[in-house]
Every structure is written in C-alpha cells, then in structure tokens.
From TrEMBL:
PANTHER family: DIPEPTIDASE B, ISOFORM A (PTHR11963:SF48), LEUCINE AMINOPEPTIDASE-RELATED (PTHR11963). One of its GO terms (molecular function) is metalloaminopeptidase activity. Coiled coil: none annotated. InterPro entries: Leucine_aapep/pepB, Peptidase_M17_C. This is Cytosol aminopeptidase domain-containing protein. It comes from Caenorhabditis latens. It comes from the Eukaryota. Keywords: Aminopeptidase, Hydrolase, Protease. It holds the Pfam family Peptidase_M17. GO terms for biological process: proteolysis.
Amino acid sequence: MSLQSLLSTKIVRAASIADAAFDAVVLVGSQESVKQFGAIQQVSAIAPAVDNFLKLHRGAFHSASLVQVDSSVVPSGRLILSGTGHVSRDYDDVRRYQAAARKGIELALSAGVKSPLLITLPNARFPNAELVAALGALTPVYTPLNVREEEKKQKLQQLGLLAVGNSDTSARLEQFVEAYDASFTVCRDVGETGPERMAPPRVAEYIQNAFANGNIKVTVVDDQSVILKDFPLMAAVNRAANAVKEHQARLIRLEYTGEGETQDTFFVVGKGVTIDTGGCDLKTGGHMFGMCRDKYGSAVVGGFFKAIDVLKPKNIKAVGYMCMVRNSIGSRAYTCDEVITSRSGKRIHIYNTDAEGRLTMLDPLTLAKEEALKAKNPHLFTVATLTGHEVLSYGYYAAIMDNGPAKASGWARKVQEVGDEFGQPIEISRLHPEDFAFHQAECEQADLRQGNTKPSVATLRGHQTPAAFLQMASRIDEHGTDSAHPLKYSHIDMGGCEGDHPSVSFPNPLVTLVAGLVLPHV
C-alpha cells in the first residue's frame, strides 16, 4: 500500500488563510488566545470577525460554531470557530485541543465541507498543541476498512494545515501528521475490524501489503507445526480455532534497522486475539461483544512500525511481534488443569482459559528476550488489552510496569512526561514481591501457575501480577539489575484505553510510544 492510501485524507501545508484551495477555515483556540490575534500575522485578518462573533456568543470558545465571514478574508466565507474551553487551570491539559479540533471537523463535515484548513492558535504551555489538534481533527475523517474496500471513498478531499507556532513539531507539522495518520490507519484497520475480515491469516496479509516496498521487513510464521514446536502456548490458545483454516494462528515479525550506528534496540510484542470467546471459560451475558478489539495490542505494534516506516528514524533497530490467534471454544480447545511447557522450559499450569493474552505473548516474548541478549542497548515491551482490573484502576489510561533495569533507566517516568506533552497520558504501576509469589505453582507438575480461577477484576493486584508472570515465565526475571546481563522490560496493560467499541478508536498508547521512542531519532 502507498502512504497516500493509508492516509485518512490528503494532508497539505497551506500558504495562508486566504488560500482559495480550501472551502472553510477551522480555527482552534482558547478564550485567552484571542489576545494573540494581532501578534500572529497569519491569522490577524480574521480578528475583527472573531471579535464581532464573541459579542453575540460569549461562550464561543467553549463550543464549535459556524461563522460567516467576508470572502475577501476567507475565500469560502466560512469560519468554524472551535474553542478548547479552559486551558489555564492546573488540571487542564493539551487534549482540550484534540477535542476541540475533532468537534470543529465534525461540524465541518455536517456542513458539507470537503477541504477544510485547520489552524490552531499556539499556547506556550502546550508546545505540541498544533500536532495534537491535527490528530484529533483526523479522527472523524477515518473511514473503516470494510467501507473503504467496498465503496472506495474518503470523507474529505484534503486537510490543510497552517502552522503558526514556533515549536519543533510546528516546524515539521505536515511530516508528523502524515506519519501519525498512516500509523493510526494501520492500527485502526487491524484493531477495530471484525474477527473474520481480520482473522489471523488476513491480518498477516494486510500487514504484508501495508509494508510492501517500504523500510520494514515483514516475516510471517504460518506453519502450524512450527508454531506448535516453537511457540507452544500460543498454539494452545489457538488449538480450537486451528480446525478452521481461515482462523489458524500467525506470528508476524516486523524489523527495522535505521541508518547509522545502532544506539537503541526495541522489541515490542503485541497481543493479537482476533476474537476472545473466553474459550472453555466462556464469556457470557454479552461480555463477548467488542472482543474483536482484543487484538489492539498487536494493532499498536503495526501502527508503531508504520510510523517508523514513514519517519525513518536513525540509529535505532526495532523488532515487533504481532501474536495473532483466535481464542475459540470447541472440542479441541485448551482447558484449565492442563500443564504446558513453554519455550523457556517453564511448565505453566492453566487455571483460566480467559486469561489467554499472557499465554499468547509469552513464547514470542521469550524469543525476543533471546534476541535481546545479543542486541545493542535492548528494551523489551509487551503491549496488550490484558485486564479489566487495569480499566477499573485507571479508566481510559494505559499502565506501564517496569522491571528493575527499566526502572533504573527512568524510562517510565520519562515516557509519562512525553505522554503528557503529546496528549496521551499514561499511568505507572509498580511491581511488588507478592506479584511474583502469586504465580508460583501450587503443585509439583508445574513451575508457575498462569493465574487463578477468578476474573482480574475480582483479583487483588489483578493487572500487576500478569507483568510478573511474563517476566518469570520468559526468564526475563533472571536478567535483573543484579545479573551479569540486565535486560530492560516494560509491560503495558492498555485495558480499554483505545475507547469503547464500536466507536472509532483513538490509538493508545501509540502516540506516546512513537513520541517517546521514535521522534527523538528523527
């Protein structure tokens, strides 16, 4: 697929507010930003129109409004004023710009606008406001994959960007918006699309097409005998689905090596359960609805690598694993009470087939750990929609859990600051001795137990213990700060941070991961 085919719409840099190529101007700002009009040459011409409208509508900067303006100032005669509301209180953050831009574009679409020009008034407190606003503006412009395939349509002809700020992101606004938009499309296409269109083999096919002739090497393991031998727990989760050829498991490997000497190596493993029935511990009472998004961890991995593909960062190497399975129920389904020997040699006692995400990622994580031992400054990650407990703990925010070496590097704190700056906050959870003790086996048959028989929401520290399990079962715990070869490892439990099904998702924590790991090398 070409870059243009993955963009929600064509992204163009505008010459001025009077550019006749656009049929509306969407102006995003706050009440305080009105004072800036005279100082910002690019938008000073519309200051009188905004002042006049504010006399009629004092709350204009708390909503989105369509304002008629003189065509000598804005050729289309249409100005959409989309206010952020308050941005000066301690608890206000840059996401107000994202929400305002989204509302502005939604109003533009309802008014029949096809080529809007987006302008975001700068705010010294939020240097990335223009980028964050642009990503919000593109959210309602995304067209689902199945609709694009059947109707081949886009909602807008183009989105213009007129950068008026002086930050680093403002200077490279068009480049960053294109990279993020393409990465969002890959993430949404994989993460949101239903379990048949995005069954494991078709995810692999989509990813191969999305990265064809690009900078990412894609390798797909599709031989089920190889998956059974090398990734036995992943194979167990997919055992019932394997009877249907179209549902057979796939392990997708993505690899990128940037120009110059490698300084950092990232290994990112994503959970990719295309539909989670719960298996033999069946989800009932409507709780299966929306479980097509249980592959969103792998979707984030795909989106992360598309951003890398577009931006071509230097001095890094990145390896991704998308672990694509279907947790079906049937006569061949894996069950509780099984003891399965993992790739690491650890014997795992199964307690609950609806805790399949950690099992799906475990053996690919072990492989990544094996590779990391030979890599330059490696950092391992797992990314997954893993537990309801995380959702109860943090709502619509992902949670990071660092091991000892990652914590010593300060990574979680650094990336948390990045998330705040780029409008995608992320929370930090800590691991304690009881999280590791919880997964010790209760019988001689096994080394570790997968979990317990309760859902995570009924389990103390229900989102922290899986991070401990993944460390022990992959033997990453043998590479702590006191070892001869420490390895940094961070587990990210996304919970439901991408948003509620079936509404359009906002890829999370994709913005933060790209900003924290990729942009510093661009």
